[in-house]
Amino acid sequence: MIKHHPSDDILVEFSAGSLPSHLALCVSVHLQYCSTCRATVSRMQTLGGELLRGMDGVELSDGLFDAILDRVELSESVQRTQVVKPIDLLRKWLPDGLQGLNWRKQWFKLSEYVLEVPDKGNWRFSLQRISAGGIAPFHGHRGNEVTVVLKGGFSDESGAYDEGDFIIKAPGDRHKPQAFQNEDCICLTYLEAPVSLAGPLGKWIEKFKALFGSQDAVPSH
Ligand SMILES: [Zn+2]
Asked: Which of 130-134, 170-174, 194-198 has the highest mean pLDDT?
């Protein structure tokens, strides 16, 4: 069951079409799993239209916003919102879905498949896979990390995440994800900056990397 959703702020930006494309894609994938957020986005889009039509100059407090949002009827377009398989949104990179991917091993039970994006700068867009029951290295975040669980699930110090869950880790967050025991966990992940490994072993590896100048980011999951 989905328990972790994008914040209202993110859904507002998404509805207005003003999210950066990588984040919009992550939200779109979540929406394929989550009827609650689909309904919210539809209401926000309808509300956006209403506001443009006649509410210029009205000061919009959070309370008023919620009250209006509650009253907005689901428009016809909502009923027609097409739900596709989440993986279909990633067809450009994954013509055969999750089959036959050339996973690159990152850690004992953690592998990665990078989704190539032009001009990506320092960030990284990829699939992360942790084998059933496997544990990813304990690591800290230097930038935001957005994760949508595509298959299976994992848990960390903050909770458990199932298919469709949308998770944002902020700079400074540290965690050690572990895949559920019964199946491999595959996530879509957008990482703003390379993570830093934590814990004694992680610190040793960080030092080693610094010494030998490896530019390889160790992904989180
Ligand atoms: Zn949702």
From this structure: 130-134
